[in-house]
UniProtKB/TrEMBL annotation:
<keyword id="KW-0677">Repeat</keyword>
<dbReference type="InterPro" id="IPR002110">
    <property type="entry name" value="Ankyrin_rpt"/>
</dbReference>
<protein>
    <submittedName>
        <fullName>Uncharacterized protein</fullName>
    </submittedName>
</protein>
<feature type="repeat" description="ANK">
    <location>
        <begin position="132"/>
        <end position="166"/>
    </location>
</feature>
<dbReference type="Pfam" id="PF12796">
    <property type="entry name" value="Ank_2"/>
</dbReference>
<feature type="repeat" description="ANK">
    <location>
        <begin position="202"/>
        <end position="236"/>
    </location>
</feature>
<dbReference type="InterPro" id="IPR036770">
    <property type="entry name" value="Ankyrin_rpt-contain_sf"/>
</dbReference>
<keyword id="KW-0040">ANK repeat</keyword>
<feature type="region of interest" description="Disordered">
    <location>
        <begin position="60"/>
        <end position="83"/>
    </location>
</feature>
């Protein structure tokens, strides 16, 4: 009889030929054991847990086994065969923190322990706190900059990725807000059913959050749009994700990509005047002017831009120029203001040039049509006289 010495870690699952009571294929979880028949000869053998009765584990023949070639080997003082199979290393040691604190600090081992030993893991993983109506997913994604591994644990145990907190925020919003490199976490949440067009209480979608807060948002934006995110979704102020992108930085390459992907530059959002408290309307061209995004403004002015949009942007430029020329700033701020003012004046000059060009073109076009109409009327009058 073969004696099992230790478990060999192995991650593998496949469908069995056997069916469960509901007629579905059994998923076979595979483990490998180092066995010995003479005390000296040691080989590795794979065991399919779904098909191997407990009392047969001690009677595995090495001749019928397939040697395992991957994984880490454990010492001879490993736990008993069944505990080695059934217990993940994170399941065996009780943590000193509760599951809420574990989510707050992204403690993967503690999360696994609490969920594994829970009577109803799915119910526990979707419980809510009493302050902000948040689930463990909300806590994890709002408190950690790199939540991927802990996020995977919660989702595997049945966490609902579409759950909202008191502010209407979902995990996908929080990841895009707090994680500097959210790509893998976004992909994971989408895989488990997160909604790419979900809106929070202010109407922001994950695309708004990514465009506004991600340091390098291109790949995340492309992933969300590829998953069905609306590139022209508007928030409570009627602003699209491109407004957020321009507030984040002068990402002119992303602006080009978004324009090629159908971003609408004619949508007018509401701008709040900090001095008067009143709102005014403006397009993304006004947003680029407000934040002095020179490269992005240049690209936009190469597209079809309405006369009203240019006039709105010019008003923003005039107001912003007054602010930047103020001298109530220290030396460091003054240097930044000087550079911003230089960019703003270039943008303002381009806006005025485009407006004048469009005005001249409009006048020429008007004069041309007036000439055509005049000639037509003269010709018609001459025809009448001849008749």
């Amino acid at each position: 009889m073969a004696t099992i010495i230790t478990k060999h870690e192995r991650s593998s699952t496949r469908k069995s030929n056997r069916l469960d009571e509901f007629g579905s294929p059994i998923i076979k979880h595979k483990a490998a054991f180092k066995i010995s028949t003479s005390g000296k000869s040691k080989k590795f053998v794979d065991v399919d847990l779904a098909d191997t009765p407990i009392d047969e584990l001690e009677a595995i023949s090495p001749r019928d086994s397939r040697r395992a070639t991957t994984g880490k080997r454990f010492s001879s003082d490993a736990p008993s065969p069944m505990s080695a199979i059934m217990d993940h290393p994170d399941h065996t040691t009780e943590p000193s923190i509760d599951i809420w604190q574990a989510a707050k600090v992204a403690d993967v081992s503690a999360l696994r322990y609490h969920l594994y030993h829970s009577k109803n893991a799915r119910e526990l993983v979707n419980q809510r706190d009493h302050e902000q109506d948040s689930t463990l997913l909300h806590i994890l994604c709002s408190q950690n900059r790199q939540p991927f591994q802990a996020l995977q644990v919660l989702l595997e145990y049945g966490a609902d990725p579409t759950a909202r907190n008191i502010y209407g925020v979902q995990a996908l919003h929080s990841v895009c807000l707090n994680c500097p490199t959210p790509l893998e976490s976004i992909r994971l949440l989408l895989k488990y059913g997160a909604t790419p067009n979900a809106k929070d209480g202010d109407g922001w979608t994950p695309l708004h959050y990514t465009a506004r807060f991600c340091p390098e948002p291109l790949q995340s934006i492309m992933l969300l749009v590829g998953a069905g995110a609306n590139i022209n979704a508007t928030d409570a102020s009627n602003k699209t994700p491109m407004f957020c992108l321009l507030a984040n930085g002068d990402f002119h390459v992303i602006v080009q990509w978004m324009l090629a992907s159908g971003a609408d530059t004619t949508i007018t959002g509401e701008f709040l005047d900090q001095k008067t408290g009143k709102t005014r309307l403006g397009t993304v061209l006004s947003q680029a002017t407000k934040y002095t995004r020179l490269e992005s403004a240049t690209i936009m002015l190469q597209t079809t831009v309405g006369k009203d949009a240019i006039k709105q942007a010019l008003k923003v430029a005039e107001s912003r120029e007054v602010t930047l020329r103020s001298k109530d700033a220290d030396e460091k701020q003054s240097e930044a203001q000087t550079k911003a003012l230089e960019r703003l004046l270039i943008i303002k000059s381009m806006l005025e040039g485009r407006l004048n060009k469009d005005t001249v073109t409009h006048r020429k076009r008007t004069s041309f049509f007036q000439f055509i109409n005049s000639s037509f009327r003269k010709e018609k009058a001459a025809t009448v006289v001849i008749q």
